[in-house]
Design brief:
Elements (H helix, E strand, L loop, with lengths): L36 H5 L9 E5 L4 E5 L10 H9 L6 E8 L5 E7 L2 E6 L4 E7 L7 E8 L2 E8 L4 E5 L8 E6 L6 E6 L3 E5 L5 E5 L3 E9 L3 E5 L3 E9 L3 E6 L2 E9 L3 E6 L2 E9 L2 E6 L2 E9 L2 E7 L2 E6 L6 E7 L17 E3 L5 E6 L4 E6 L1
Parallel strand pairs: 4-8, 4-11, 5-10, 5-12, 11-13, 12-14, 13-15, 14-16, 15-17, 16-18, 17-19, 18-20, 19-21, 20-22, 21-23, 22-24, 23-27, 24-28, 25-27
Antiparallel strand pairs: 1-2, 2-9, 3-6, 6-10, 7-8, 25-26
């Protein structure tokens, strides 16, 4: 018999949630972080003010350089941008033979870049859905086993890029020989960066754009952080550690099975998790929100917010679980917790452990089907 429990504790708090499928951020409104390794390493930390609207699930990005502001309800805008585009046209740029290249470094601003396996033994570069070659400048350099690719779009008042394979627009495709690379490093300004099906460690930093790592199997570590952008990992089986950290931005994790350690955090942003089996994870948001939809948890899973909202949905009745709650009004949850659910509630063997927290000043909604 299915059971549905719901716990809601509401405290007046300013929530700075950023929608994954339509966020608008400007440098003027962002709570800028102090100088950090992220800020010091990015080529684009001093970019001028820019508004962006991002779809984490599809890799599309719209941006304005005139100080305009995108509304969150942007479906009509996406349709307009799509209808004005000519996607998937292919223009070859260059081919670089493998020269003992072990690391690929990609820098991108005002454009899209997709890194995918090459069918040849060389690095292949092509424009996809780009009207004129001059719209995106592509520079390459090789030194000490590192291939650096810098892609820079022209500075229009408004721009649109899409790295989705079905509708690629204003994107540079970088084809990578199989079994060559040991690491990929990314630096994203206002742009959309995609690593798809290249299962090597990925490290990335972002400014106001989108960085996505996708693939059926993700068995190499992923570590991404951003200032005001969006980070996403999408796969079927994720067996490697995943670290996603966003300041004034959003993160997303979508997969069937996640067995690697997942360490996700946001500040002044939002987090979206859709996983069938989540084995070992720590999900944290400050001044933001977490929305998690999970079939089953394994090992230890913690999800907590400070001054934000946590929506945690177990889509299946757990067979083995110990359930912990922390935070709330001075650590007390009160009568809102329905009968049968309490701190320490145990099902079956009492393992794995699921712990939820909304403290201080949080809203918690926990449901089980």
């Amino acid at each position: 018999m299915k059971r549905r429990s719901k716990l809601s504790i509401a405290v007046a708090a300013g929530l700075a949630a950023i929608a994954l499928c339509g966020c608008a951020v400007t440098r003027a409104s962002a709570d800028m972080p102090p100088t950090s390794a992220l800020a010091a390493e990015s080529l684009y930390q001093d970019n001028p003010a820019m508004s962006t609207m991002v779809s984490a699930s599809t890799g599309k990005l719209a941006f304005k350089s005139d100080g305009g502001y995108y509304k969150h309800s942007g479906s009509d805008l996406w349709a307009t941008l799509r209808s004005a585009s000519t996607p998937n046209t292919v223009t070859a740029i260059k081919t670089i033979p493998n020269q003992n290249i072990a690391t690929l470094r990609v820098n991108a601003d005002l454009c899209g870049v997709a890194v995918e396996p090459s069918e040849s033994g060389s690095f292949e570069f092509s424009y996809i859905g780009v009207k004129e070659a001059g719209d995106i400048a592509v520079e390459t350099a090789i030194k000490d086993g590192v291939l650096t690719v810098t892609c820079t779009g022209a500075m229009p008042t408004e721009g649109y890029v899409n790295t989705d394979p079905d509708f690629r627009v204003n994107t540079v495709l970088v084809g990578v020989p199989t079994g060559v690379l040991q690491e990929i490093r990314l630096d994203c300004g206002v742009g959309s960066l995609l690593v798809n099906g290249v299962d090597v460690p990925v490290r990335g930093i972002g400014n106001s754009g989108l960085i996505r790592v996708t693939g059926n199997t993700i068995s190499a570590s992923v570590e991404l952080q951003c200032d005001r952008g969006v980070l996403a990992v999408q796969g079927t089986t994720v067996s490697a550690p995943v670290i996603l950290n966003a300041r004034n931005g959003s993160v997303a994790l979508t997969a069937a099975t996640v067995t690697g350690k997942a360490d996700l955090s946001t500040k002044n942003g939002s987090m979206d998790i859709k996983v069938d089996q989540l084995d070992n994870a720590r999900l944290e948001s400050r001044n933001g929100s977490i929305t998690a939809e999970i079939d089953a948890v394994g090992e230890n899973v913690f999800a907590g917010v400070e001054n934000g909202m946590l929506k945690f949905h177990l889509t299946k009745e757990p067979q083995n679980l110990v359930f912990h709650l922390s935070g709330g009004w001075d650590g007390r949850w009160g009568a809102e917790l329905l009968k049968g659910w309490h701190d320490g509630y145990t099902v079956g063997t009492g393992k794995p452990v699921l712990e939820l927290s909304a403290s201080p000043n949080g809203i918690l909604s926990f449901t089980v089907n």
